[in-house]
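pasting for ref. prot 1 ->
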Amino acid sequence: MGDIRQSLLPRDVLSAAKELLYHLDIYICNMVQSGRQPPQVDSKTLDLIEEFILHTPKDRNAPVRRMSALQELQLLEIMCSCFQEQSRDTVRQLMFSALFNLQGNQADESRMALLSKLVSMAVAVGRVPILECAATWLQRTHRVYCVRLAQVLVDDYCSMVPGSGPTLHNIHSASPRFCCQFITAVTTLYDLTSDELTPPMELLQMIVSWIQDDPRLVLITFLNSPLSGSQPISSLDVTPLGGLIRWCIKAPLAYRRDKKQTNNGSSDGEPDAARLFSALHLSVLQVFMLLPNILNEKGLFGRLALLQMESVAALASDLSRLLDQADKHTHAATSDTHAASQLALDRLAQALQVAMASGALLCSREDLRAICSRLPHNNLLQLVLSGPVMYYNNIHTPPLTYSPHAAHSPIPTLPPHAPHTPLAAHPAPHAQYPAQPFMTGMPFPFRPGH
């Protein structure tokens, strides 16, 4: 395609970009049809994209071309139509990669800016092909850039434009793959270490609603996408389970920090947050309960960990720090602080128990004790740390050298919902926080008494 540059130079910026997209589509279609393996866009074509679409030419002497806001909007509409009209997914994915795969050069900032606007528009107008391509991009890209894209969408639909939340909510039905990757990205972004990194209430409500409607949603990337051995270690986790657990466990303490007290002594917005995080915690535990059948069918139970020990260790460290801060700086009553602390520890214990029993977390009892050694006493956590961790059916099979980014065979389908054993409510330490369920149906060698 390098020979079309001279024909693009005399054109205005919008016309040149439109013409290049047209030729790019033809070029990739011919490449796919020829059967070239692996299909790869050449460097000259990437240079044209940077010059005429991203407006960052490699030649410093070349004139800098800029689009007006109206022209940029028109380009986004043209790109939406281009992806919508292309019927072959392989061609769409290759075109999206050519446009937006990061190259480690000065054009990457322009790539991210254009990508963020395109995906935001695709959410607004329901362009599923672009959302599907963006889901693949989120799987393959460094997490730093993934959370930047997620931040733009949260700003656009949960902060800047009041009442636009329902538009973002629709991605659940439009593109479950993108929705799963979006949840993973926002749980990476919002780690509850500060008020700025605490998820907005509207986003939290949205995610709780999605997972309650379809618990399998958070497993879509893991189940339906073949993971290549070359997947970068810096990419997002394969599922958002680790991030969601972090939210639920840290929430009782993080949502109390720096909140204004109302006349009745509770924090503004805290009851709603408590209810939502309680519902989210139950939903995440139910997702873990789907895993044994899936892993057993593939012969991976006890060999493949979806929840990494490094993540659990980091969570325990964060929780220890939050508990210390709550003891030293809280202005609330001592009983309230103790209740919030015990609720966080209860949730940690429940998550560890169910994750181990479901085969999502592979570790020894000694490892867990070491990780949780700095945490204060909690009855439920003590039971989990004291009892036998798990006896795997294939205990004599060596564990896979697996991380969320390592290679494994894709699991094409998810089995139908298994009937859930009724859950017995574990008594909450304080009435302000809803009771947390203890998973009675899990094959665990002990159960705390009530």
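and prot 2 ->
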Amino acid sequence: MIRMMRHALHTGRGALCLRSFSETRGEVIEDVLQRTDSARLTNEASLYVHWPYCLRRCSYCNFNKYIPRENNDHMMTECLQRETETLLQLSHVSCITSVFFGGGTPSLAHPSTIAAVLETVSRQANLSDTAEVTLEVNPTPVGRSKLEDFFHAGVNRFSIGVQSLQDEDLKVLGRDHSPQQALLTVAEARRLCPGRVSVDVMFGRPKQSVESWENELSELLRVCDDHVSLYQLTLERGTQLFKQVLEGEVTLPTEEETAEMYLCARKTLHQHGLLQYEVSNFARQNAVSHHNRSYWKGAQYIGVGPGAHGRFVPVGEGGVLREARTQTLEPDIWMREVQQKGHATRRRIQLSNLELLEEVLVMGMRMTEGINHKHWELFSPQLGLHEVFGTSSDVQELLQRGQLILDERGLRCSWEGLALLDSLLPALLVELERRVSQRLQEDEHAKGQTNRTSNTR
């Protein structure tokens, strides 16, 4: 459960139409549709590609990133292609639904690297011309100057790391761009990919007040596109900012203030037509991140590059269970391992049924739509949402408080509950573990009874 907490990244219309058929025929077609969805769980995947290099390290960041000692872009590109090819063959997926280039600072990569990886994907699996291909961009003049080349390389969605529109805050955060450079980058990205540009902005920054945050959001909303991602600044051990706060050089807003900032942002974004569809993400015109949504829906994803994470079934090795996989962290070692054996998977863990359901629960509850019954059944055909959570006294209390909703649609947080998700998940995870364990014991008991009956005949 602890590992799961740390990890916490269809056919409705057709089913309604089926009810006009005879009962038998309808059941058969519904069964076919459900098996089609189940097959899609292993036939499809999204792809995450990690570019590990940055020109500098931000004061708050503990991501897997490195300052390059020399230019080895050519070798990095070849290894990204090789590992992509190897893991796609291992997964046996026939379709890649989306690609996300993250980092690090992937906008430092040459556009030819992006094109080469996408070409490799297309050789191994179906990558639709309309599939979402996102690139994270650092909004510096260099990043902005390469946007058009990235677009022609196959990128059709940009995620711009604006973080703040305050000069002083950007300096404290160790960012290497100015507010004006960020605004120019957003404008150029919107010219190239109208309606498909996301802006990342951070709250809970040093010396930030609720009033200054409101003013900043108003300025951001005048220039942003149809997607905004909000992130609360968190202190991470080993970072420069952690040391500065520890030594009293920098102070952060209180928990109460950051909670108010989050509620303020939700309200303001909603008023401007940016509807919340996940804890940290808001969109209008349905401009959601399809790649991230696949994580929250429990779909397979393949992670390529130093330190990348993945979740998929290694069918090519005869695997039948989904694995949690992590690639080697350090870029030079990662490249050497890829050259030697085609991939650099450092750690792989088969996920038990409980662990998979924990991931589906934790990720699914991040969405405002939550988890519907049909989707849950794909992963848990024996235990429905009502069976797992409907009789728990702890869950009933959360339902009565109006923080959770469990009804004919499925399980989800209320508007108020979503802001408290971290405090709601432990009760749900405990109940899930209890019911799955209980079901296993019942199955073992029934199996024992059957064996005894057979032996007496």
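The mean pLDDT is 87.
The CA atoms of residues 354 and 436 lie 7 Å apart.
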